[in-house]
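@channel anyone free to eyeball this complex?
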Amino acid sequence: GQNIDQPTEMTATEGAIVQINCTYQTSGFNGLFWYQQHAGEAPTFLSYNVLDGLEEKGRFSSFLSRSKGYSYLLLKELQMKDSASYLCAVRDSNYQLIWGAGTKLIIKP
Amino acid sequence: TAGITQAPTSQILAAGRSMTLRCTQDMRHNAMYWYRQDLGLGLRLIHYSNTAGTTGKGEVPDGYSVSRANTDDFPLTLASAVPSQTSVYFCASSPGTGSDTQYFGPGTRLTVL
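replying in thread with the prediction:
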């Protein structure tokens, strides 16, 4: 079967750095996405990795290791508005997205 | 631009009744998708359409039907609602089906009693 694993919940302090991990087992791999979802809102796109390595976008970076079936999202200089759920999704061999259940990130002052 | 709109925002429906959730995009995207999101579970694909005139089944298609008569609209119909269909439904679209990013509508919160 296909499986995406992420921690259910994480807590971090404003101004700090947090790393959210995602491991996956899917039938094929055609890219990995990270989305942010604030409570009661739609998911919004954050990053896309298809090759191994680190992609940096401002305060957010995403890393991929295809051989390990592993990715992480790194958030720096945390702000209160970063409190949200972070969804990891893998595009499989049929080009369908398989989604993790999401990691709820709580930022404390 | 509006992007993707969904209607209604929320609905309470009696079991056994039918309902159509509407989804419209103005980005001229070829591909559209319907997902449901339940607490503790990832988004699950119900149906998708790679281009106008074609549809396909996702992971959880039973009890749902879709049509794609034109590029902009992708309605989702529940023929006879059951309580297990209580969920938040998201419509999404993408320019194509390769590595393209999916963009989501605001969602419809449906409660079936």
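from a first look: The CA atoms of residues 2 and 26 of chain A lie 5 Å apart.
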